[in-house]
Write a sequence for this structure.
């Protein structure tokens, strides 16, 4: 199983992540991490920080000559703006130049101040900031590289920003999802993407913010990840916790999610059939033993166990709590007077970036459960065990994904 721990503040010296449980022999470079972090900075509606902030990655431990060692991996992401914040965020004894006493509704400010007995919202917001997700993306990049060894691709696209939503249609293929980054809002629907951009521009004009929905799809996930036997090993529960932990996320759906509640049972479930082996057989829903699902209502998970069909999760983000024109009422925690919340640098929307973060959280869960299922202290052993499992199901390794087992 994989474990990871992040540390650091938004404007601190650096973010740090430690990943434990990664098998030996996985090829990793700092450039791999940099590419993942660059995707996190994508998206129309981001603030100026994304234009001048760079992520300086250092592989501190657990990797030698481009390969993991099986020991804990430590990654540091330096804050290139640290010289501007060194006095304000110094760990040495002293006082800040300004104390923030007007907590923002919708943020962790007030609850965190009350919980920890603090009088400065910066003591809370620096850690509650979504900047922390850069460390998660670094960890998730490792998980994606491991999953690629068994033919699993985890990608996302944006299906809604504000009121604008992409139309219904079949699940995007891996090739289509790989092109999502070409869109300014990471949408696979060009028409919907244009409408999303227009609504972001309209919100920006009045200093407001927008939320939205990302859809994460994992192709090539083998049947049998997760378990039905314990509440805390159900795959959909693990995914929900991981995705809900992302800053500003308020809802997670697996498959058709809440929409299933309004259907009859005869409409809500994914019928099972045997693959007929004919020309053009769609193997996207191929399960162990040659079973096929032609629909994806369950999102690739039944009873807490992956079915072998694509895993689909939709993640809903609320509008950001910091507004470019603060209008939300609050109370100054010192004077107790009514006022408006303070302003930090902010985005109009971070939904396109949230999709990238959601990918990494899904990848971390799937990689952990794949390691639980297949085991292995090295990548070669991990892949070998997966081959044996597929053989027991009557499959060939090529049926489970695009990566060849050497």
């Amino acid at each position: 199983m994989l474990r990871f721990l992040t540390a650091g503040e938004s404007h601190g010296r650096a973010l740090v992540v430690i990943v434990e449980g990664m098998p030996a022999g996985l090829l990793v470079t700092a450039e791999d991490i940099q590419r993942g972090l660059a995707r996190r900075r994508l998206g129309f509606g981001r603030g100026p920080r994304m234009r001048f902030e760079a992520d300086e990655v250092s592989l501190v431990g657990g990797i030698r000559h481009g390969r993991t060692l099986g020991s804990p991996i430590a990654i540091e992401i330096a804050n290139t703006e640290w010289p501007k914040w060194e006095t304000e965020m110094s760990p040495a004894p002293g006082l800040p130049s300004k104390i923030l006493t007007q907590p923002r509704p919708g943020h962790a400010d007030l609850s965190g101040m009350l919980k920890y007995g603090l009088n400065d919202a910066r003591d809370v917001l620096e850690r509650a900031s979504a900047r922390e997700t850069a460390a998660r993306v670094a960890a998730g990049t490792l998980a994606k590289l491991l999953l690629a060894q068994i033919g699993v691709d985890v990608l996302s696209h944006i299906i809604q920003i504000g009121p604008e939503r992409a139309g219904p249609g079949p699940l995007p293929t891996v090739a289509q999802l790989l092109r999502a980054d070409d869109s300014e809002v990471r949408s696979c629907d060009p028409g919907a993407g244009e409408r999303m951009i227009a609504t972001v521009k309209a919100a920006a004009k009045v200093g407001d913010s927008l939320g939205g929905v990302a859809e994460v799809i994992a192709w090539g996930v083998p049947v049998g990840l997760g378990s039905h036997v314990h509440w805390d090993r159900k795959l959909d529960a693990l995914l929900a916790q991981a995705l809900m932990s992302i800053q500003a996320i308020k809802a997670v759906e697996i498959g058709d999610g809440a929409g299933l509640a309004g259907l009859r049972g005869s409409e809500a479930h994914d019928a099972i059939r045997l693959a007929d082996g004919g020309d053009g057989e769609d193997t996207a829903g191929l399960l162990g033993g040659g079973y096929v699902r032609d629909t994806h209502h369950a999102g690739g998970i039944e009873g807490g166990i992956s079915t072998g069909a694509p895993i689909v999760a939709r993640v809903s983000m609320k509008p950001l709590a910091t507004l470019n024109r603060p209008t939300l009422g609050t109370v100054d925690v010192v004077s107790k007077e009514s006022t408006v919340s303070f302003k930090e640098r902010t985005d109009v929307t971070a939904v396109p970036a949230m999709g990238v973060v959601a990918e990494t959280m899904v990848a971390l869960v799937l990689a952990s459960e794949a390691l639980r299922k297949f085991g292995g202290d090295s990548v070669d052993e991990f892949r070998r065990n997966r081959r044996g499992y597929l053989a027991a199901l009557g499959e060939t390794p090529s049926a489970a994904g695009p990566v060849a087992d050497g």
Notes: Confidence is low (pLDDT under 50) at residues 398-406. The domain at 98-400 is CATH 3.60.150.10 (Chorismate synthase, AroC fold). DSSP finds twelve helices and 17 strands in the chain.
